[in-house]
Design goal:
380 residues; alpha/beta; two-stranded antiparallel ribbon; 12% strand; binds ligand ZLM; binds calcium ion; binds zinc ion
């Protein structure tokens, strides 16, 4: 390991409760909270826990969840369990969107309040100035709606954290590099100019959640304060990094946010079980490094990511970046679950070799121009 970027040495806090990794969505369900345990072992195996402030997080309270979600929905989450779910009144499961994507599993409510408590603790450290960067890899569940779960997300920890930050911050920038559209966060702040949301994602009108075309740009006071970057399969490192930087740079300069929240969903990596992009770990991390280089306080959360060994590699690498540490490729040899990495005992496996890049130069250039036109509305 060696250090880089000596000019800006942020105080970094790391928010985690090992308990959050012990819940199960069901045997074949792609969302595996265990990936968080794998990440935590890798982070400490590389010695990163010694240079951050570590906080074992608490559960969010009901009152905290009710800042965004409805009474009706929170009460349902609290009382439902695998044994009583089929005895609920007719229509309840449809109303609350319960099914294969969002199943009822044991202690679902506890799981949701734990990852949310971690994001709220992290936002509090930024608010009171004790941290410049606060990390919660168990958060980032960007699809959850006010009245229902969606896409593996039950409580929207991002919306709740942003609401908390808005108490003192005039302008919050939300950046989402998960493979999927950050619809829950976009929707929650669609009519305000105090939160700017931008999401990069796969889009074809069908791919989950179906939204996120470039014509969704906000409404009312929020007109021009939402930006969508719809991409096709197979985007590669250079195209993604170039597009990301050429959008985020003018966006930060024009909007001048006082705090940034970055969702780092790992399903945009190549070889993801649900993914279709061709990004390597270093390219994903470059987007985090670039945002950090502006020196604005950051809340960094996880999100999707369905090939656990690569999720944990990515988030460990990004924990290093946020601490100005470049991690050596050799994995620490003394960590539990080392056998999960027996495909290649490296932090940087080759992931860009699976999909054809369907994003032509022309398509990307047109998209970039369209995005810059949107950003230009901020001036004047
Ligand atoms: N079926 N089991 C991303 C959220 C993506 C909706 C198509 C469910 C799956 C998927 C669940 C074991 C984030 C859709 C899918 C099958 C309707 C999605 C359970 C496999 C399984 O084997 C599976 C019974 C399951 C779910 C695949 N679901 C793949 N893609 C998406 C939701 C969340 O990464 O953005 C943030 C954490 N749902 O495409 C269907 C339309 C439900
Ligand atoms: Ca996204
Ligand atoms: Zn996703």
């Amino acid at each position: 390991n060696y250090e880089f970027g000596s000019t800006y040495a942020p105080r970094v806090s790391y928010h985690f409760n090992p308990k959050v990794s012990s819940y199960h969505f069901g045997v074949r369900h792609p969302m595996k909270p265990f990936r968080l345990m794998l990440t935590d072992h890798l982070v400490s195996g590389y010695g990163l826990h010694k240079i951050m402030d570590l906080y074992e997080t608490r559960k969010a309270s009901d009152d905290e969840l009710l800042e965004f979600h409805t009474d009706d929905y929170i009460n349902f989450l609290k009382k439902v369990n695998p044994d009583n779910v089929n005895k609920m009144p007719r229509g309840t499961l449809d109303k609350f969107n319960i099914g294969d994507d969002c199943p009822i599993f044991h202690n679902l409510y506890e799981y949701s309040s734990l990852y949310t408590g971690a994001s709220l603790d992290a936002s509090r450290k930024l608010l009171n100035g004790q941290s410049d960067i606060a990390i919660n890899w168990s958060g980032g569940l960007h699809h959850a709606k006010k009245t229902s779960p969606s896409g593996f997300c039950y409580i929207n920890d991002i919306v709740l954290s942003i609401l908390n930050l808005l108490r003192f911050h005039p302008r919050v920038l939300y950046i989402d590099i998960d493979l999927h559209h950050g619809d829950g966060v976009q929707e929650a702040f669609y009519t305000t100019d105090r939160v700017y949301t931008v999401s990069f994602h796969k889009y074809n009108g069908e791919f989950f959640p179906g939204t996120g075309n470039y014509d969704e740009t906000g409404c009312s006071n929020g007109k021009h304060f939402a930006l969508n970057v719809p991409l096709k399969d197979g985007i590669d490192d250079d195209s993604y990094i170039n597009l990301f930087k050429s959008i985020i740079d003018p966006l930060i300069t024009s909007y001048n946010p006082t705090v940034i929240i970055q969702q780092c969903g790992a399903d945009s990596l190549g070889h993801d079980r649900l993914g279709c992009f061709n990004l390597n770990i270093k390219a994903h991390g470059e987007c985090v490094k670039f945002v950090k280089s502006f020196g604005i306080p950051m809340l960094v959360v996880g999100g999707g990511g369905y090939t656990p060994k690569n999720v944990s590699r990515l988030w460990t690498y990004e924990t290093g970046i946020l601490n100005n540490v470049l991690l050596s490729p050799e994995l620490p040899s003394d960590i539990p679950f080392l056998n999960y990495f027996d495909d290649e005992y490296s932090l940087y496996p080759v992931l860009d070799d699976l999909y054809e890049n369907k994003n032509s130069k022309q398509f990307l250039e047109d998209l970039r121009i369209r995005c810059l036109e949107q950003i230009r509305y901020l001036k004047g």
